[in-house]
Fold this sequence. Notes:
Elements: H1 3-8, H2 21-29, E1 38-42, H3 48-57, E2 62-67, E3 80-84, H4 90-100, E4 105-108, H5 114-124, E5 133-136, H6 157-169, E6 179-185, E7 188-193
Parallel strand pairs: 1-2, 1-4, 2-3, 4-5
Antiparallel strand pairs: 5-7, 6-7
Bound molecules: S-adenosylmethionine (SAM).
Amino acid sequence: MSLWHEFLTNQNRTIWKWTHYLPIYERHFSRFINKSFIFLEIGVFNGGSLQMWKRYFGPFVTIVGIDINPKCKKFEESQIHIRIGDQSDPVFLQSIIDEFGLPDIVLDDGSHIQKHVNATYNFLYEKLNINSVYFIEDLGCAYIAYWGGRLNKKDTFIERCKNFINSFYLEHEISTESTESISVYDSIIALEKKAPNVVGQSSIV
Ligand SMILES: C[S@@+](CC[C@H](N)C(=O)[O-])C[C@H]1O[C@@H](n2cnc3c(N)ncnc32)[C@H](O)[C@@H]1O
């Protein structure tokens, strides 16, 4: 069942996504279908996206939603765990890892405030295992003052990504040495992890 179909035929809780996100998710997430893994979504809202992920990924996924709003707790059901806290609080994020293990997919659809997006990324990304995916949604907010953004403002996640790209091609830096790809879409950035590069030589005999 495609995510597109899941989204269009949804009769359950409201899902708050732009439609052009759906094929992007499929591109990065389809390899996880029917696998046993941890999916972490930051930002629960009405709980509809968590239900969509459950239908899409199948019976073996553990879905963890985190939100600052205590009312979101009521959206828990089988396979869907909801914890209440602030995405920029490292103690809270560590408690999620302690309880569920490291997520294989992180989808940041939380406050979209650049300070929060950075704090969550700073805490989680380095810890993630190889083959993990880190998604940040609604990055148009990086250009809008309300969310702490502005064009070319140094500390937005967009500006950081420009530096990640530079460090791909200059000397590998800690933040990118285990990154396989940085995919930049309309309002979404997806980072895929891989094993760190090892400097080696090959010889032809
Ligand atoms: C865009 S909505 C999430 C939509 C949901 N992922 C979906 O697709 O249906 C953003 C959510 O982030 C939550 N939020 C805002 N600030 C937060 C923070 N600092 N930490 C965690 N969640 C936060 C809000 O309460 C809201 O429910």
